[in-house]
From TrEMBL, chain A:
It comes from Arthrobacter psychrochitiniphilus. This is Transport permease protein. It comes from the Bacteria. It is found in: Cell inner membrane; Cell membrane. One of its GO terms (molecular function) is ABC-type transporter activity. GO terms for biological process: lipopolysaccharide transport. Residues 64-288 form the ABC transmembrane type-2 domain. Belongs to the ABC-2 integral membrane protein family. One of its GO terms (cellular component) is plasma membrane. The lineage of its organism: Bacteria, Bacillati, Actinomycetota, Actinomycetes, Micrococcales. The keyword Transmembrane helix applies. It holds the Pfam family ABC2_membrane. It is a multi-pass membrane protein. The chain crosses the membrane at residues 69-91, 97-116, 148-167, 173-197, 209-227, 267-286.
Length: 295, 296
C-alpha cells in the first residue's frame, strides 16, 4: 500500500493448491429459502427464549412495571375521548363511542408496536448479529412473538373495558372471530416489520420517518371518527376501506360491539393483505441475509 | 471423470479455505479537503450530509488453506489485518471480494462477542448458547461449568449492563468456550481479567484446543505462537508476507521488528519485500467442481 518503487513485490511462482470444497460451505452464506425456513424452525428455542426474556426485562426500569402496557392505551383513550369525543365531537352519531374508540386504540397500538419493534430489530441487536451465526429472521420474528405475548393481557383488558363501560354489550359467538383477526394481524405486522428491518439496516434514516408513516396510518384507520365522514369522497373512502388496519379494527368492532357478522369481502381483503405482506416481507428479508452482519 | 475422482480422494479435506479474500472499508475522514475555489461556499459544505470518506485496505487479496489437525498462528504489527482476518473467518464481517469456506461454523473466542445488556447474566448465557445452536438440555448440563469458568458467582443474576468490562468479557469467553467447536478462533483475548481467571481460561483453552479440528490463534506473544502452533502466517499492512513453519516465520518476523526498532526502516522494508517475494502465490483450485479461480 505504501511501498516505494524498489519494493514492488514480484512473486516467485504461483503455487496451485487443489482443495476439495464439496464438504465445506461458505461462511455466512445465505441458504435457499426453504432451507432458511427450516433453519428458522431449528432456532425456535432461541426465538421463544429471546421473546420471553425481553418481555420480563422490557419495563423493569419503570416503577409501575408491566402496568404501563395497560395504562398507556388507557391514557391514550382518555385523551382522544376528551379531545375528539367531547371537544371536537367527531364521535357524534357513533353508537357506543367509548367502545368504538377503545377497540380502535388497542388494536392500532398492537400493530404500531409490533411494526416499530420488528423494523428496529436488526439495528438494535447488532451485537447479537455480529457475535453469533443464526438465521437473522429470528430477530424480527422474536420481536413479533414478544409483542403478541405482551398483547394477551391487553386484549383481555380491551374486552373487559367493552364489557364494563356502559353501554355494555352482550357476549356473542362472534367474539370468537377476533382470534382469526388477531392471527391475520400478527402475520401482517411480521411481514411489514421484516421488510422495514432490511430497509432500516441499510438506510437508518427511514427509522425517523416510521413514526410519521404510522401516524398517517392511524388517521386513515378511523379510530376516533366514523368512516362515513368520507362518504362524499369516493377516492378517500375506497383508500380507507382497502387499508388493512381499518379492516382489522372494523371487523373487531362488528364482532364485539355491534353484533354484526363481518362481510366476507373484508375477510378476503385482509387475508390477501396479510399473506402478501408476509410473503413479500420474508422473501425480501431473506434476500438481504448476508448484508446484516456488516457494521 | 475417474481421474478427477481419484484426485478428490487424494486431496485432504480442509477445515478452512480462504479463497482470494480481501476487505476494504469506506470510513468518514475528518480531514478537510483543500478547496479554495469557492471559499464563500463553506456554509454549504457544512450542510453536506456525506463527509469526506477514504478507503482503508484492511486486508489485500489473500488465499489460505488450513487442514484438519493444524494449529495456525497469526502474527503481525498493529493494523496488519490479523483481527480482520479472524472476523472474516468467523463470519462477523463479509469480505468485499472472495469467499471463506469452512467445514462447520467457526467459533471465535474473544472479548467482542457482545450480548444483550438489558438481560441478566444467566439469561445471556442461555440466549448465547441457543444462538450457537445448543439445546436446552445441553445448556442445563453446561450451565454450572459456564458460571464457574466466568467466575461471576452471584453476579450472574444481575443485568449485564451493570457488569464491569472485565466481568462482561469473562462471561462472553465462558459462553463461547462452552460449545465444543470444530474450528476455534482465538483472538488474543485472554489477557483480560485477573490472574485467577487467566489460569481458569488457559485450562479451558487447552482442553478446547486438544479437541478442536483446527485452531487459528492471533497473538503478539511469539512465545505463545511457537508453543501452541506448528504453522504461522505473518501479515503486514494487509499483505500476506510469509506462511510457513512457526519457527522460521517467527524468526523472520523478529528480524523484521528488530530492524524497525533500530530505526532502519529501509532495511526492514527491503527485508519484508524479499521475504514476500520468496513466497509463492497460492491459487485455490476446487477440484470438486472442476472450475479454477486463481489468486492475483
Amino acid at each position: 500500500m505504501t511501498q516505494t518503487q524498489e519494493n514492488v513485490v514480484v512473486p516467485a511462482a504461483a503455487k496451485i493448491l487443489p482443495v476439495n470444497l464439496s464438504h465445506l460451505s461458505r461462511v455466512g452464506a445465505r441458504p435457499a429459502f426453504l432451507d432458511y425456513l427450516v433453519q428458522l424452525w431449528d432456532f425456535r428455542s432461541f426465538i421463544i427464549y429471546d421473546a420471553r426474556a425481553r418481555v420480563k426485562s422490557g419495563t423493569r426500569r419503570d416503577k409501575l412495571g408491566s402496568a404501563w402496557l395497560l395504562l398507556n392505551p388507557i391514557f391514550n383513550g382518555v385523551t382522544y375521548f376528551v379531545i375528539f369525543g367531547l371537544l371536537l365531537g367527531t364521535g357524534n352519531g357513533i353508537p357506543n363511542f367509548i367502545g368504538y374508540l377503545t377497540i380502535g386504540i388497542f388494536m392500532f397500538q398492537m400493530t404500531s408496536g409490533a411494526i416499530t419493534g420488528g423494523a428496529r430489530s436488526i439495528q438494535q441487536n447488532r451485537a447479537l448479529v455480529q457475535g453469533f451465526t443464526f438465521p437473522r429472521a429470528a430477530l424480527p420474528l422474536g420481536v413479533n412473538i414478544r409483542e403478541a405475548m405482551v398483547n394477551v393481557p391487553m386484549i383481555l383488558a380491551m374486552l373487559l373495558l367493552v364489557l364494563v363501560i356502559p353501554p355494555t354489550e352482550p357476549i356473542t359467538w362472534r367474539w370468537l372471530l377476533i382470534i382469526p383477526v388477531l392471527l391475520l394481524q400478527f402475520l401482517f405486522n411480521l411481514g411489514v416489520g421484516m421488510a422495514l428491518a432490511r430497509v432500516i439496516s441499510r438506510v437508518n434514516d427511514v427509522s425517523h420517518l416510521l413514526p410519521f408513516a404510522l401516524r398517517a396510518l392511524m388517521y386513515l384507520s378511523a379510530i376516533f371518527f366514523s368512516y362515513e365522514r368520507f362518504i362524499q369522497h369516493p377516492v378517500l373512502l375506497s383508500i380507507m376501506q382497502a387499508n388493512p388496519m381499518f379492516i382489522i379494527i372494523d371487523i373487531t368492532r362488528d364482532c364485539l360491539l355491534y353484533g354484526v357478522t363481518p362481510a366476507l369481502q373484508s375477510w378476503v381483503v385482509l387475508t390477501a393483505w396479510s399473506l402478501s405482506a408476509l410473503i413479500i416481507g420474508s422473501v425480501y428479508f431473506w434476500k438481504g441475509e448476508e448484508s446484516y452482519v456488516r457494521g | 471423470m475417474s481421474v478427477a475422482d481419484l484426485l478428490t480422494n487424494l486431496v485432504p479435506t480442509p477445515c478452512i479455505v480462504a479463497d482470494n479474500v480481501a476487505m476494504r472499508y469506506r470510513v468518514p475522514s475528518t480531514e478537510v479537503p483543500e478547496d479554495t475555489r469557492y471559499p464563500h461556499m463553506k456554509f454549504l459544505r457544512m450542510l453536506n450530509p456525506l463527509p469526506n470518506t477514504v478507503t482503508v485496505h484492511a486486508l489485500n487479496e489473500l488465499s489460505l488453506v488450513v487442514n484438519r489437525g493444524e494449529s495456525v498462528g497469526v502474527i503481525g504489527r498493529n493494523g496488519s489485518g490479523k483481527s480482520t482476518l479472524m472476523k472474516l473467518v468467523s463470519g462477523q464481517i463479509r469480505p468485499t471480494s472472495g469467499a471463506i469456506h469452512a467445514s462447520s461454523t467457526p467459533i471465535m473466542l474473544g472479548v467482542n462477542a457482545a450480548l444483550v445488556p438489558e438481560l441478566s447474566g444467566d439469561q445471556n448465557v442461555v440466549l448465547g448458547c441457543l444462538a450457537m445452536g445448543l439445546t436446552h438440555a445441553e445448556i442445563a448440563e453446561r450451565f454450572d461449568e459456564i458460571v464457574e469458568v466466568s467466575g461471576l458467582e452471584k453476579s450472574i443474576h444481575l443485568p449485564m449492563k451493570s457488569y464491569s468490562s472485565g466481568m462482561g468479557s469473562r462471561l462472553r469467553f465462558a459462553i463461547a468456550a462452552c460449545a465444543n467447536p470444530e474450528i476455534l478462533l482465538v483472538d488474543e483475548a485472554l489477557n483480560t481479567g485477573d490472574a485467577q481467571f487467566a489460569a481458569r481460561s488457559k485450562r479451558r483453552m487447552d482442553e478446547l484446543r486438544s479437541e478442536a479440528g483446527c485452531v487459528l490463534l492471533v497473538s503478539h506473544s511469539l512465545e505463545t505462537i511457537k508453543d501452541m502452533t506448528s504453522r504461522t502466517v505473518w501479515l503486514d499492512k494487509g499483505d500476506l508476507i510469509m506462511d510457513g513453519p512457526s519457527k522460521e516465520v517467527t524468526k523472520a518476523y523478529m528480524k523484521f521488528t528488530k530492524e524497525l526498532s533500530k530505526g532502519n526502516n529501509i532495511t526492514a522494508a527491503n527485508f519484508r519485500a524479499e521475504v514476500q517475494s520468496s513466497q509463492a502465490n497460492v491459487s485455490i483450485v476446487d477440484i470438486s467442481r472442476q472450475n479454477t479461480r486463481s489468486a492475483g
